[in-house]
Amino acid sequence: MTTPVKTSPSLQRGSQVWFNGQILPESEIRVSIFTHALHYGMGIFEGIRAYSHRQGGGAVFRLGEHVDRFFESAKILGIKIPYSPAQIFQACIDACKANGFDECYIRPIAYIGDGPLGIHPGNTPPIDVAILTWVWPSYLSPESVAKGSRLKISSYTRGQVNNIMTKGKITGQYVNSVLAKREATDMGYDESLQLDTEGYLAEGTGANLFMIKEGVVKTTPLNSILNGITRQTLITLLKKRGLEVQEIRFTRDELYCADEVFITGTAAEVTPVREIDGRLIGKGSHEGSVGPITAEIKHQYSELVRGGLEFEFSKDWLTRFSCE
Questions:
Q1: Which of 169, 185, 316, 321 gives a 20 to 30 Å CA spacing to 115?
Q2: Domains of the chain
Q3: Could you give the CA distance from residue 81 to residue 34 in angstroms, rounded to a whole number?
């Protein structure tokens, strides 16, 4: 078993990377400065998590769905991944095992490599594929996850659907998210929320958005947002709890008056929101704190991904493996 590279107390990078069909030491992998994607952002990626399973070993959550979306992103961008979905599926497992990680974040990435240097990469450009792993306890700070995060509506609008390809996880498109995130953190907030081009809530810089009002859950529809796999999971859990879930547009002032708000994503998991634009979320004893539905659904999600919550197809969502 290899020794992972420790980069900080909160981030532990895997020293072994799956790169173009092989497990290699990260220190030996060379990415050319002439890489087309470095200049023009033509790449795709996924965010996947493996969790320590209650019965031992690790389990990757909804790996098949993530691999499917990875290939859909490639199709949207018009690039051909030189490996099959089955090979990428197995490579994600192999990358976890190579680093001895039962629980980690998994990052597949594919991009146009060293080739033509103009904007047009040619009809058959070289495609590099890598799978990295690292231990990422939480997307936001532990305090934000426990007590609720503070969000800011961004001045950067979410891209229009014919401007950016909103159904793909495309590397270059995340410049918009980086700018929005930096704006929010520079102002002392944890995360940013973006509006769509018509002024309705879209999503965070890397997470989908849910609000609860009088027992009804609303989440932004798929008009201009990525079809989050964690979002899909939470809709299932909420409905199983007997709650009405509406995929419907809503405005920032409606969000301010919500009883509860939370964001979801593979990295963010289920993160409560206690404040938006200086307004405390909720009312009465729950104002500015984690609401009861959010707390329960957060716990259920944590149990589900570790094999502690089962229903008719939840076992199909966990791909188990062992590092031994």
A1: 169
A2: 5-135 (3.30.470.10), 142-305 (3.20.10.10)
A3: 20
**How far, rounded to the nearest angstrom, does the alpha carbon of residue 251 sit from its chain's CA centroid?**
23
Element (H, E) at 23: strand 22-25
Strand partners, 275: 150, 280
Using CA atoms, how far residue 201 sits from 117, 197, 245, 308, in Å, is 38, 9, 16, 33
Q: Give the dihedral sign, CA 7/10/15/18.
A: negative
Contacts of 229 (CB under 8 A, 6+ apart): 62, 65, 66, 69, 266
Q: For residue 102, give the 3-state DSSP assignment.
A: coil
Amino acid letter for position 271: T
CA nearest neighbour of 271 among 189, 150, 185:
150
Where would I find the beta strands (DSSP E) of 104-144?
Answer: 104-112, 127-135
Q: Which of 265, 65, 294 lies closest to 177, judged by CA?
A: 265
3-state class percentages of the chain: helix first, strand second, coil last, to nearest 5 = 30, 30, 40
User: What gap in Å lies between CA 282 and CA 288, rounded to an integer?
Assistant: 6
Predicted confidence at residue 166, as pLDDT, reads 87
In single-letter form, the type of residue at position 83 comes to Y
If phi > 0 it is left, if psi is from -120 to 50 it is alpha, else beta; for residue 116 that is beta
Tokens of 199: 């002024």
Q: Are 276 and 261 in contact (CB under 8 A)?
A: yes
Residue in the structure block whose two tokens are 């009804």: 216
> Which residue among the candidates 6, 75, 147, 169 is catalytic per the annotation?
169
Query: Please, are residues 273 and 151 in contact by the beta-carbon 8 Å criterion?
Result: yes
- The set of residues, in sequence order, having a beta carbon less than 8 Å from that of 77 and lying 6+ positions away, is 42, 43, 44, 165, 168, 170
Residue 169 annotated as catalytic? yes
